[in-house]
Records
---
Amino acid sequence: MPKERRKRISQAHQSSAKIVTRIFALPEEETERLIQNKECQEASANELFRAATSQPVVNPVIPAPAQTKKEKKQLKHELLLQRLTAGTSPYSKSHNRRLKRKAKSNLSTDLASVEKALQTVVPKVCVSEPKLDDQASAKPAKAVGLIGEGKGATLSKKQRQKALELERLRQTVIAQNPDFKGNPFAAIRTHAQNSLLSHDNVQNTS
């Protein structure tokens, strides 16, 4: 069987790696392609420099700084608290029901408030004055304890002694009165008018 021929090993170098096209740092949409016109090709470098410097400079728009993760979390927390506290009661539903029942019971059992309301609504009743006819027909009140009136019963021995003792004390007081010292008869007359029962009263009583 014939032997396989050995391959000839070439002394030449292997072919070099292909050059990969350059990847720019900026993305494609942010790059700007310059299209050269015939005028630009014919113009000198100084003219091109003057034309570039004469164009208005546009201030670049500075983007707003991006919020950090911590700031976003804090903002979400604040919005949640605002939604929870807006239009809601800090108490539970059962507590709110108890408060409503208590308010209703206070309305039904508070008699003091009803009395105040009646005083403001109901006008004050004016007290009617007595008529002149009633005054004329009314009997004059009798003075109590007049001399000559009588009680229909005789006094006992102790009652007489007590009356005499009272009159004795009264005499000493009358003697010290300045009106009695100045005019005794006038003082006796006024005392008699105030204490003795007149004849008109005797006729009316009979």
---
Amino acid sequence: MFSSIPKLPNRDYPIELFSVYMTLENKNGRLTIQLKSEPNLKRNVELYKNRHKKFVSLCNQQDKGRGLVQFWMDIALKDLTPKEEWEPANRVQMALEHLTVYCEESCYRAAEQVWKEDKYQSWEEYLFFARCFIYEQNKFKQILDKYNFDNSSLNTYITGVLIRTIKDKAAVSKFSRWRLLCKKSDKELKEALFRDGHSEPEISRFLFARKYFKQVYQINQVQNPTKRTGQKWPNPDGQDFQEAVKYYNAEKLLPSAPHEVSASTNITDEQLKAWMELCIAALQNYPKSIAPRFSIEALQSAGREVESEESQEILELDLQGSIEAEESVENQGNLVNRTEAALRQQLLSLKPEQQELVLLYYGFGLEQAQLAVRFEVTQSAISRRLNTIELRLIKTLSGLGQPTEWVTQYVAGWLEYNYQAPIYLDLIHAALVEAIKKLDPQERELLRLRYGQKLDEQEIAIQLGITKSEVNEALIKAKSKLQIALLNVINNKIKQYISIWLWVFGKNLVKSACENLNIFLIQKEDSKIIEAVLEECVKGLHQSNQGG
């Protein structure tokens, strides 16, 4: 707890007033407030300043922002004015966020006022209560609905509401730093840690540690019969951390543990306590939805694994990605063309009866039972013939990609550089993590020591009480299992691709044949039409190959 309140930096009018929020930082034991810009909000203010005449006029008024507050409230609460083409589609949501950021100063003033009256809890906790309230949009909107513009400024009104809110929270005395840590969901903690500058594998380890600390702490402290209902949650003691560490170190060896955890070393009581303090700091710094456009989910859906608070960083990353993409387009195009050509060539090399089977099954959508009647064989025979054709195409694609030649090298490189923090958006990374979970416990431990702790073979041999050659043999065996698992995944994906490709290719041939014959509907019972379309499809198959 700090004995003084840090000074609130000034925000420039009008852009920063509606686009900048505050964060708390501990510098050499002294609490300071830093201002951080939300890029989307900043761009939106600049957009209105450049395009909206009334907004420009309000910016020039010397009214401490009251006119702009009313402008954003009219959009956020009423949305009566017709939407201009240049305005964002989510202008109502954006207006509400501008008002939320504007009220950051009210949070500061309210926390300051309550702390001067009652220093039982820290000023930081009072500030946290206030910010949580305004960043809960439904509550904030309800409060804005009750605001009377003629009675007071929005800052004065919101400050009064927040003072009452903070006092209500403090009077209950249930909120503590440790209650905050236990009550937040994994999703909220993960996002808070991410925006506080932490990354993988650190985040997964923090979440895993919090899981066992929470269980131990709640049993020992919160559910303790000696604790009276309504009391503030007590601080944990040394025994809580000791018990939680025992669970962490034991459970991390199980296959169900996150890979980032099982790949790491055992932890100590002091380390666990430090981790929990970092989690609390992250949660206190970033109340719910403080920067919604930079949530983990949004970044992952865009394929990013990095923090993107600064718009310049985003631009640099996007430019770099665009350059890399342009450089690889030609290679990707060549691979697609080679794949298409190879598969079509294989279809042409099939016997006429096999070509008909493929077209009738994938193009016309006939069932295997119907095909068995047509070809006068059993249904199982039809299934075997289709599998034979698919296998032939799979071998063709495998020959193009040559996975057996690069998988060995890839697995070795992945273990060396990505073992501790795999990228789950990458299919191969995810497949290797799953393969590791299926290894024997001894093999998982060997990989952890070699690639998690970075011990060499001799150090591992001494630690496990075996010879260096035995270590090498076991590592080779484990790598071989990973290579086989990866090859199986690749083969399964190739098989899925072949099925989809045959379906699309067959349907397109049938569609083209029907257009050539002016046929608009095919009844599966109409054998004459099927024969005519099938004959046209075979012609199309040969013509498409000549055209390619």
---
Amino acid sequence: GGAPAAELNRLEAEVAELEARLKRVPFLDDLDLRYRHRVYVPQPIARAVMFCLMDVSASMDERKKDIAKRFFTLLYLFLSRKYEQVDVVFVRHTDNAEEVDEDTFFHDPKSGGTVVLSALELMHEIQAERFPMTQWNIYAAQASDGDAFGSDAGKSSRFLGEKILPVCRYFAYVEIPDGQDARQSSLWVEYDTLTAASRGFAMRRVCERDEIYPVFHELFKKETA
């Protein structure tokens, strides 16, 4: 079922506060301001695409999917306030990835193993075909419990760093472990190598539903700073 109206109102208010902070950020640095009569400033792109990537293998139970849905909803609210048009692309994966509609993404059970790379490859393919970065602001949010086997984690991290992050304005990875499991997954360890080199990438762990807003706020401090 849907979230209570009071909770949605609270989330919208918090997103509005993030948006207000964003509007206070100067778009030109001091050098540009000094030479602004010579600087060509392109018109901002008024539309964004949001890729939602989710592991739907057997280990991603309903609790984890619910946490992921809340995160994706917050991101959509945030982007909807910032851009005139927001398209959403849902990519789910087990050991292979597919683009689906929202209802299938969240509610249609699917079984199989886990190959994270398949989702990243499909996102890249869709973005290249339908959402050129000259015409779209590209955002992505990935939710997983971090289960990745064999060489998948390393391959996924390399593909993310080489193919996905260069075209994204922002990529957020949310890992949803079992309970309060403190162990770092192989995917987390590999993705963590990308955080220092990319301003447009951030990752956090979320164990409970009530952690979603604080984690969202933390992730998007970068985007609003």
